[in-house]
Design a protein that fits this description.
Number of helices: 28
Helix content: 40-55%
Shape: elongated
Structural class: alpha+beta
Oligomer: single chain
Radius of gyration: 57 Å
Strand order of the largest sheet: 5-4-8-9-3-10-11
Distance between the termini: 113 Å
């Protein structure tokens, strides 16, 4: 058992020091009343190294409690950080769901006290506000208070339980005070302490017994002894104080020395001085009596007392003063007022209550009914007082009345549904809360009956809506989910309280938290379509965890979903990827809605999911088809443009060929005739001049041949190519081409062809032109000499003929234009050579590929099919 001699400062002036194990209660009207008592109470506890718990409710909740305490304890944050104080709402302490379990709450107090001591605190200081307390929990809570009162002296614990006087009946007040050693009550602006009535009565009885046992020869000694329990006051014949005991001085707020020598009238206000004068006059006449009297404390507050007064007579029989035993009855006065007010409020509440109230004895006879009971049933009060509960219950409920009375005798309280029948025969669905009470000194049953007609209608409508909703939910072809995000909401709120504001940044910095939040989502229900979509046989397979259907990339969309909820949006849509229970992947379209009324808790969230896998596949095919179509269109457009260009070039070539051929033939004929004439008129004396003319004519002839080649190339490029395919020995064709050429001495030539190279099916005349042109270009690219390498090889039914030089190379920006007609980089080039080659190779269903690097040389490779099909 705890040593009750160890006193602790309460912090409450009217209360003073109190021992461990003290169980107090406070009756309050406003939240300011709570602040008056609880703020200094906890401030003192914090200063004295006590662990503090403040359990709040209306009208003073957590935030206001913290603010009020902060004003008294500026460094409150220090104690919070240290873990010395907890300020929490009532539902986090007293309730488990919607239930109050007294054993669990009692054990929590014990655990907190032992934990506080283990952490180095002196003990536990606590308070709990009961404003939240529902009538149906009252009896259970009263038992809980009684249990605390019985055992609290075994612990280092001090507790103040606070009750709203507005919510308490007179009997409630008596019950509460009986379960606490002292009660704090406010009258006017002052607080008073009312001690336990039973303990006071016991003390009074002991005092009365001690009076009978006290014997003394001296009257003063006798009277002093019999009054030592309370205040003792002695005055002389002039009314000056000659003696007070410590108790009296304490009652009035003075020290003994401060009171001695002061006149009796000093301790009262002017309105009672006249009464005091009359009373003193009676003492002078030798009259002893008891009466009530008001005094003023040092702080100006009133104290109500009961005086047992007697005159003091000296040995000569003269009046020499008066002696008074002073009993503080302030608490009794306050209690009388409190009880009177409570009784008045009880009567007003009884008749103004919105529910019907019945009081009947244990035999079932009505003892009292309120106004609503009469109006609802259509009977007068006098008529109902002649009836029993069986008379107003419908037949199916009337037979249960005796059984319920017996149940009440054992349990003390029950809640049940019944149906009352009014005078007009209308059935009234009713919810009845009944409990055993003391009524005029006898046990009786108080029943509060609430008309639940509207609720029953609403329940029927709700059941019908639920039935229809369940049918729509289950039979919907769309995957539907009902989910509970309340645990996620709590986690997010805790992050907010910790100062997190930018949740997107937080999630990016802590991506692992997304899987943890996903595991907090409770899947309440899914429909049949969901089972089919996710390849589940039973709902339970999907109700465990969202991670079962999440792919890694799904968490990114889950993050956006959470951010949408955090930002207060009630709807979210996205397309993402899920997996089935068998491991398959599905593209889905998701829509999330917070159910109306659940925006603050996220405890009911509906999710609809569409399988868009097939749509995504078709979209991808359509996209690929569209891209291919664009390529084909681009290629065809290019072909058309080339065709247009070819047509233009062909038309130009035909015109140029026609217009230039005839003059060229005339020039060639004239040169021939000029050469003949020159030979016939040659004379030795003109030999030098003739030779000069011959060389001039030769130059003209070469230029005419070059012009003729240009015309031929134009005509070849414009003319349709129709290869005459024959089997051709490629190495032989290359050698024949090289034999017709004059190769520069500074160029080394090497040929590398596979042995037994398969004969190619080509037009040898056409391909001779192609290879000749490519070889000539390679030689012209090496004016300073170099290496010409001609190689041939086969690969996968294709022949590759490479003509590689070590010449100047081709700039990268020119490469795309190499095969464009009329494009050239040569001073005397017409830009048709490579264009013609490309056209001739393509006529063989082949192509020319080019690799080149400036300063390193170029490599032109002709690719031809071994089994050629001409274009």
């Amino acid at each position: 058992m705890m040593d009750t001699a160890v006193m602790r400062k309460s912090g409450i002036d009217v209360l003073g020091d109190i021992p461990w194990g003290t169980h107090l209660c406070q009756f309050y009207e406003t939240k300011e009343d709570l602040i008056d008592i609880l703020v200094p109470f906890f401030a003192e506890g914090l200063r004295n190294n006590e662990f503090c718990i403040w359990v709040t409710s209306l009208p003073l909740e957590v935030e206001e409690a913290i603010a009020a305490l902060q004003e008294a304890v500026p460094d409150l944050e220090k104690y919070v950080t240290k873990g010395q104080i907890e300020i929490i709402p009532y539902n986090a302490w007293y309730l488990f769901g919607d239930e109050f379990n007294l054993e669990s709450v009692l054990q929590k107090w014990v655990d907190k006290e032992s934990g506080a001591i283990e952490r180095g605190f002196e003990g536990l200081r606590a308070t709990g506000n009961t404003f939240w307390l529902d009538r149906k929990l009252w009896d259970n809570f009263v038992e809980y208070e009684a249990r605390i009162n019985d055992v609290i002296h075994n612990y280092r614990m001090i507790a103040i339980c606070t009750y709203s006087i507005e919510k308490c009946t007179a009997s409630d007040v008596v019950e509460v005070m009986g379960n606490h050693v002292s009660t704090l009550i406010k009258k006017g602006k002052s607080w008073y302490v009312v001690e336990d009535v039973a303990k006071r009565r016991l003390a009074d009885n002991k005092f009365a017994e001690s009076q009978k046992k006290l014997k003394t020869r001296e009257e003063l000694y006798f009277k002093l002894m019999q009054n030592l329990y309370e205040g003792l006051w002695a005055i002389d014949a002039e009314g000056r104080t000659i003696f007070v005991n410590e108790r009296l001085a304490e009652m009035l707020g003075y020290s003994v020395d401060e009171m001695l020598g002061k006149h009796f009238f000093t301790f009262m206000d002017e309105k009672v001085v006249k009464i005091a004068q009359e009373k003193l006059e009676r003492r002078r006449r030798g009259i002893s009596e008891e009466h009530d009297f008001e005094f003023l404390r040092k702080d100006g507050t009133r104290i109500y007392t009961r005086l047992g007064t007697s005159p003091i007579i000296d040995d000569d029989g003269n009046y020499s003063g008066a002696l008074a035993a002073v009993l503080d009855i302030t608490e009794r006065k306050l209690m009388e007022e409190l009880l009177a007010n409570s009784e008045r409020r009880y009567r007003e509440l009884f008749n103004s209550a919105s529910d019907a109230i019945f009081i009947h004895d244990l035999e079932g006879r009505f003892l009292e009914v309120n106004r609503v009971a009469c109006e609802r049933l259509g009977y007068s009060r006098e008529e109902l007082l002649q009836m029993t509960p069986m008379d107003i219950d419908s037949p199916e409920y009337a037979d249960w009345v005796p059984l319920r009375i017996e149940e009440l005798k054992h349990s003390g309280r029950i809640i049940f549904e019944a149906a009352h029948v009014g005078r007009n025969g209308i059935i009234i669905p009713t919810e009845v809360s009944s409990r055993i009470i003391d009524y005029e000194g006898k046990p009786a049953i108080l029943s509060i009956a609430r008309d639940i007609t509207e609720r029953k209608v609403a329940e029927m409508a709700l059941e019908e809506n639920e039935r229809r909703y369940r049918g729509l939910f289950e039979d919907s072809p769309i995957s539907l989910w009902e989910e509970d995000f309340s645990e996620v909401k709590g986690y997010i709120d805790n992050l907010r309280d910790a100062g997190i504001k930018d949740f997107r940044q937080y999630f990016e910095n802590h991506p692992e938290i997304l899987s943890e939040l996903a595991s907090m989502v409770k899947i309440v229900d899914v429909n049949k379509a969901t089972l089919d979509m996710y390849e589940a046989e039973e709902k339970e397979e999907l109700l465990s965890n969202l991670s079962l259907i999440f792919e890694q990339e799904t968490y990114e969309d889950f993050k956006e979903e959470l951010l949408s909820l955090i930002e207060g949006r009630e709807m979210f849509e996205c397309e993402t990827i899920n997996k089935t229970l068998s491991g398959g992947s599905k593209n889905i379209s998701l829509r999330l809605n917070v159910a109306p009324g659940y925006e603050e808790t996220w405890s009911k969230v509906f999710v609809s999911i569409l399988d868009v896998t097939e749509r995504k596949r078709m979209e991808e095919e359509l996209r690929s088809y569209s891209e291919r179509l664009e390529e084909l269109v681009e290629e065809r457009t290019k072909q058309l443009r080339n065709a247009e260009r070819m047509a233009a070039i062909g038309e130009t070539a035909s015109m140029v060929g026609h217009d230039l051929r005839n003059p060229l033939q005339v020039i060639i004929g004239s040169i021939y005739l000029a050469n003949g004439r020159l030979k016939s008129i040659s004379a030795p004396e003109n030999k030098k001049q003739n030779q000069e003319l011959v060389e001039l004519l030769k130059t003209i002839e070469e230029q005419v041949d070059y012009m003729n080649k240009i015309v031929s190339d134009l005509e070849d490029y414009a003319r349709p190519v129709e290869p005459q395919i024959v089997e051709t020995n490629l190495p032989q064709l290359i050698n024949d081409i090289l034999l017709t050429m004059i190769l520069p001495e500074n160029v080394k030539v090497s040929i590398d062809a596979e042995e037994n190279f398969t004969p190619l099916r080509i037009d040898p005349a056409i391909m001779r032109r192609v290879f000749s042109n490519l070889i000539i270009n390679a030689l012209q690219a090496m004016p300073e000499g170099g290496q010409l390498t001609i190689s041939a090889f086969k690969k996968e039914n294709q022949a590759f003929i490479s003509i590689k030089d070590t010449g100047e190379g081709i700039p990268e920006e020119i490469m795309p234009k190499l095969f464009q007609p009329l494009f050239t980089t040569k001073a005397r080039g017409q830009g048709l050579g490579l264009a013609v080659c490309d056209r001739l190779v393509k006529a063989h269903n082949g192509r020319i590929m080019v690799e080149s690097k400036v300063g390193k040389g170029s490599n032109f490779t002709v690719q031809l099919p071994l089994n050629i099909k001409t274009v």
